[in-house]
Specification:
alpha+beta; Rossmann fold; OB fold (Dihydrolipoamide Acetyltransferase, E2P); 6-stranded mixed beta sheet; 5-stranded antiparallel beta sheet
Length: 353
C-alpha cells in the first residue's frame, strides 16, 4: 500500500481547473518532485495534501487514513514555504521552537529538540540570531528545521530554493537530499526547475494544466517521455513538422510533429561524416553560442532549425558554415502518447561506407 495517495482529485478556482482528476501514489520514505510550468497546479496539489486547500472531489489518503476533513494541524505534516515565512522578531531558536510551543511541549524537551535540529541543518552558534542577520541559505535552513521540529510524518516544500542565488541553491539541493535520506521522511517538493528535480528527486511527477502527465524516475522521465507535453517540456528540444522528410525517418511521415533534442544530433564540418552517407543531412550554421562546457549551435536543415551541442575541443564552427548533420533519433506524437523513432539507416551496419 502506498503511504500517500491522491484519488481522482479535482479542484477549480472559478474557470481555472487547478487539479483535473489527479491520481497519484507515493511510497514511504521517498523524495518526490512535482515538476511543471507556472500555473500547472503543482502548488495547489501540495496545499491540498497539507490541508490548506480542500479538493472539490476525490480523496487524499495518508498512511491508510482519509484526511480530506482532517484539520491541517492534525495531519502530521511539515510545510516549508517559498518565502521562508520566518517570524522576523524571533531568534533562530525561537522560530524553530514555535511549533513545539504551540503543542505545549515541555521546555527541556524543546531545548533538546531545537538543539538537535540546529546541528542537523548546520546552524551551530547561530541560535540567537534574527532572520535579518542570516543569509538566504541560512534562513531556508531555519525554515527546514522549523518544519521538522514537531517530527512530521510527511514534509512538503513549495519551491524551496526559489529565493536563493544559484551557487547556494546548488549546495542546498545536495544538502536537502542527504538530510532527507538520513531522516527517511516522506517528502514532496514543488519546482519548475528541471535541473533541480533531476538532481534532488527519487521520482518526478510531471504536471500540466492540472493533469498528471507522467511519473517515474528522472532517467525514465527524460529518456522515455510518455506524452507530447513531457517530450516537449523535459530537456531542451526543437519541435519540427514534416519529420518524415529526414533521412532514416520515413516512418515519421504518419505523424504531424516530432521533437529532436540536442543530444540526438551530431554536427561536423561538411564532408566529415561520409561513413553515414545514407543518414546525413546537409545544413547551415545560423548561430553559435558559448555555453561554458560546450558550444550551442543553431543549424538550419531544410525548413527546420535544430539545436545541437559541440564540444569545445572540436574544430570551431561559425555562422554561415556548411555542415553535415546526423540525427540518431526523434520523438513523435501518436495521439496523447509519445514514441521514440530511431534512424532506420543506422540500424544496419551495411548502410555505412
Amino acid at each position: 500500500m502506498k503511504y500517500l495517495e491522491l484519488r481522482n482529485i479535482n479542484k477549480s478556482f472559478g474557470e481555472y481547473k487547478a487539479s483535473d482528476d489527479a491520481s497519484l501514489g507515493i511510497e514511504k520514505g521517498r523524495l518526490i518532485g512535482l515538476l511543471g510550468p507556472s500555473g500547472s497546479g503543482k502548488t495547489t496539489i501540495l496545499r491540498m495534501i497539507a490541508g490548506l486547500e480542500t479538493p472539490d472531489s476525490g480523496d487524499i489518503i495518508i498512511d491508510g487514513r482519509r484526511v480530506n476533513d482532517v484539520d491541517a494541524s492534525k495531519r502530521g505534516i511539515g510545510f516549508v514555504f517559498q518565502n521562508y515565512a520566518l517570524f522576523r522578531y524571533m531568534t533562530v531558536f525561537e522560530n524553530i521552537a514555535f511549533g513545539l510551543k504551540v503543542q505545549h511541549v515541555k521546555r527541556d524537551a524543546i531545548k533538546k529538540r531545537v538543539g538537535e535540529l540546529i546541528s542537523l541543518v548546520g546552524l551551530d552558534g547561530l541560535d540567537r540570531r534574527y532572520p535579518h542577520q542570516l543569509s538566504g541559505g541560512q534562513r531556508q535552513r531555519v525554515a527546514f528545521a522549523r518544519a521538522l521540529a514537531p517530527n512530521p510524518h510527511l514534509l512538503l516544500l513549495d519551491e524551496p530554493f526559489a529565493a536563493i542565488d544559484a551557487k547556494v541553491r546548488q549546495e542546498l539541493r545536495k544538502w536537502l537530499r542527504k538530510m532527507i535520506e538520513s531522516l527517511q521522511i516522506t517528502s514532496i517538493f514543488v519546482t519548475h526547475d528541471q535541473e533541480e528535480a533531476v538532481e534532488v528527486a527519487d521520482e518526478i511527477v510531471v504536471i500540466n494544466a492540472g493533469r498528471i502527465e507522467q511519473s517515474g524516475s528522472p532517467v525514465e522521465i527524460y529518456k522515455q517521455p510518455a506524452t507530447p507535453f513531457v517530450a516537449r517540456f523535459i530537456g531542451r528540444s526543437d519541435v519540427i513538422d514534416n519529420a518524415g522528410l529526414l533521412k532514416g525517418f520515413e516512418a515519421a511521415k504518419d505523424f504531424s510533429q516530432a521533437v529532436i533534442r540536442p543530444e540526438f544530433i551530431r554536427v561536423e564540418k561538411s564532408g566529415h561524416l561520409e561513413k553515414y552517407v545514407r543518414s546525413i543531412e546537409e545544413g547551415t550554421v545560423e548561430e553559435v553560442s558559448f555555453r561554458g562546457d560546450c558550444l550551442e549551435l543553431k543549424v538550419r536543415v531544410g525548413d527546420a532549425l535544430l539545436t545541437a551541442n559541440r564540444p569545445l575541443e572540436k574544430d570551431e564552427l561559425r555562422a554561415g558554415d556548411r555542415v553535415s548533420v546526423l540525427i540518431r533519433r526523434i520523438y513523435v506524437f501518436d495521439g496523447d502518447a509519445a514514441r521514440i523513432l530511431e534512424n532506420e539507416n543506422m540500424k544496419n551496419q551495411a548502410v555505412y561506407i
